[in-house]
Amino acid sequence: MLLLRLVTIALCATGVALLASFQPVRIEVRSPAGPRGAAGPAINVVDVAAGVPASRIAALIQLRPDEHVAAIDDRPQISDLEVGALIASRPPRPGEFLDLTVGSPDGERRVLVLLH
Q1: Angle subtended at Cα 111 by Cα 88 and Cα 57, rounded to the nearest 5 degrees
Q2: 47: which residues sit within 8 A by CB, 6+ positions away?
Q3: 93-101: long-range contacts (C-beta < 8 A, 24 or more apart)?
Q4: Per the structure, how many domains does the chain have?
Q5: CA distances from 16 to 3, 7, 10, 12, 13 (A)
Q6: Is there a domain that residue 100 lies in?
Q7: Does any domain span residue 3?
Q8: Which CATH number fits the domain that encloses residue 80?
Q9: Is the sign of the CA dihedral 6, 7, 12, 16 positive or negative?
Q10: Is 0.85 topped by the overall pTM?
Q11: Residue 99 resides in a domain
Q12: Is 20 a domain residue?
């Protein structure tokens, strides 16, 4: 019985000594390097299901009234008619995508249209 008490007191004293010498852990969350607001244009992803006709893809992009498609696959486009004709003429092939640059008075954004 005396031996059990001695072992218990020794374990408690060791635990207190370890806690007293314990260095606290400091957790710090850092943001990625670089100035704020220096990111590129916003990116939207539109996932088009199989069987959707090319004529419906333009409606899925959801352009605001003040927006227009400025480039398709980084090739500048002159008019909205040219953009619509180019999108409608490309039959959707599984695994293909359209990379659109949409311009507005607020700036540009990218729209990636994934075709299945």
Answers
A1: 30
A2: 114, 116
A3: 94/50, 98/57, 98/72, 98/73, 99/72, 99/73, 99/74, 100/61, 100/69, 100/71, 100/72, 101/41, 101/69, 101/70, 101/71, 101/72, 101/74
A4: 1
A5: 20, 14, 10, 6, 5
A6: yes
A7: no
A8: 2.30.42
A9: positive
A10: no
A11: yes
A12: no
Tell me the three state secondary structure of residue 89.
helix
Residue 105 is part of which domain span? 42-115
Instruction: Output the 3-class SS for 23-82.
Output: CCCCCCCCCCCCCCCCCCCEEEEEEECCCCCHHHHHHHCCCCCCCEEEEECCEECCCHHH
The residue written with tokens 């059990």 in the block is: 4
Q: Which of 112, 116, 95 is nearest to 49 (CA)?
A: 116
pLDDT in tens, 2-60: 889 999 999 999 999 988 887 776 666 665 554 555 556 677 888 887 777 777 777 77
